[in-house]
Each structure stands twice: as structure tokens, then as C-alpha cells.
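If you are new to this repository, start here. Below is one unmodified record pulled from the training split, so you can see the exact layout before writing a loader.
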Amino acid sequence: MELKLLVIRANEPEKIANFFSILGITFDYHKHGNSPLHYSATLGQVILEIYPLAKNQIETDKNLRLSFKIDDFDTVIEKLKENEITFLSEPKQTDFGYMVIIQDPEGRKIELYR
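And here is the target side for that same chain:
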């Protein structure tokens, strides 16, 4: 089994897509079928999509936690600091590898690994 699609719902999809672009993810803005306009990127075999909140959704799900292995870790960390992204931890060695935890503009925790 493998993951094929991950959809993130966002109050401000463009802001979240811009945030992820700092990590090196390139999005297309499009729609298919009856779906709303949304952002889509391919990461290996996984498609990451950012949609607006669903009609019955009041706020972003802040319990979703994502993890990414970053190719140019140190450069990305500097870009995140330049863009005043919230760091929830300092970069450090853990049992799972060298990593840092940041927060996206809508409150989701994002783990970044070297």
C-alpha cells in the first residue's frame, strides 16, 4: 500500500501554498470536475492538494501534522526565518534524525528533516 493523495483544507489556500513554496514545493492552481479551484503539487508518488475550507467547516484542522525531508535543509531554515515563520523547536538531533518543528500560518505543526 502507498499514499497517493493528501488534501489539506485551508482558510487561506493561497497563503498556505506560499508557505509550502518556501519549503521548495511548486504548486499548480487549477480545478477538475466540480471541484473548487485549488493548489496541487506532486511530491514523489504523492499528490498534495490545498483546498478551501469545506462548506460546513468553520476553521482549519490544527491537529493535522505533516513531515517532510528537505533537500537543502539549512537554506530552507534561513528562508523560513526571513519570512518570520513560527519555530516550535530549534533544529536538533532526535531519534528520528536531525529535525525542526515549525508552524504553518494556520497553526498546523510541520516537521522538517535534513
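Two things worth knowing about this chain: The longest helix spans residues 13-22. The longest strand covers residues 46-52.
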